[in-house]
Design brief:
The protein is an all-alpha fold. Among the domains are: 29-119, no CATH class; 167-224, no CATH class. The protein is 47% helix and 0% strand. The chain has helices at 3-12, 29-40, 42-45, 61-67, 78-84, 103-114, 145-156, 167-179, 185-193, 199-209, 211-224, 242-245. Helix 2 (29-40) crosses helix 6 and helix 9 (185-193) runs antiparallel to helix 10.
């Protein structure tokens, strides 16, 4: 597995935790709990006082623990009682909202409360901490610290890494990823002929120096800016925006 595919795999690797291992995992509010509450609960029990029901606010720990949550005691927490209820008049979210928690989401909330119901600030306000790279079995495969995280996920899933791509394949993958275009044949030949340890880095530097790299990055920005020759989101009428793009 080459460096480009390693990075792509790192971004998409999903770890599946079964119910049998649920008691051993640490639930994190921002990662595991906030999305559940935001999707299913905050509309009626969040920051908007005008829409708030039963004077219950779940987005603030100091408020939620006075009425709905008993830290470390899910069996005594009204929140758990309501989400597990089969009574249409008691269950949360109410059936009329057309929202329904999955068994996995219910277990996440129960486990979170059992572990103390700790809240977190928004992720942008939390200083990042460098994690300790995990131990792996195939030490020879590791070239950078991030490889340990990728390989640990593969080994836990009882998978083995794909063999490293040959240089021509690597050159094509890198060019498509960096510029959105196939590589220039002359540039590929130059890469193949480069026997120095920095050959791959030199090739990537040339891709980064290409104006096509900026154009490719710009495509994502245009998507974020909802670029189109019709309004679409409000009125589906034509607008001349090609000059803005150029």
């Amino acid at each position: 597995m080459n460096n480009v595919t390693r990075c792509a795999f790192a971004g998409s690797l999903i770890f599946v935790v079964g119910f049998a291992a649920a008691a051993d995992r640490r639930v994190e509010y921002n990662r595991d709990v906030r999305p559940i509450l935001a999707e299913n609960c905050f509309a009626c029990h969040g920051a908007d006082s005008a829409a708030r029901k039963a004077d219950l606010r779940l987005d603030k720990r100091e408020v939620a623990t006075k009425t709905a949550i008993v830290p470390n005691k899910p069996e005594k927490s009204p929140l758990v009682e309501r989400v597990l209820s089969h009574d249409a008049e008691e269950v949360m979210p109410p059936p009329r909202t057309k929202k329904k928690l999955t068994d996995a989401q219910k277990e996440t909330l129960r486990l979170w409360i059992a572990q103390g119901a700790e809240y977190q600030s928004h992720w942008s306000l939390i200083a990042p901490k460098r994690p300790q790279p995990p131990q792996v079995k195939d030490e020879k495969w590791v070239k950078t610290p991030i490889d340990r995280f990728i390989l640990k996920g593969l080994e836990d899933a009882k998978l083995t890494p794909a063999p490293e791509a040959d240089r021509r394949t690597l050159a094509r993958r890198a060019a498509l990823d960096f510029t959105g275009l196939p590589p220039d044949p002359a540039d590929v030949d130059r890469f193949l002929a480069d026997s120095s340890p920095e050959a791959y880095e030199n090739y990537l530097d040339r891709l980064l120096a290409s104006p096509h790299w900026g154009e490719h990055r710009g495509r994502y920005w245009l998507d974020a800016a909802r670029y189109a020759d019709t309004h679409g989101i409000h009125f589906d009428n034509y607008r001349e925006i090609w000059a803005y793009r150029d």
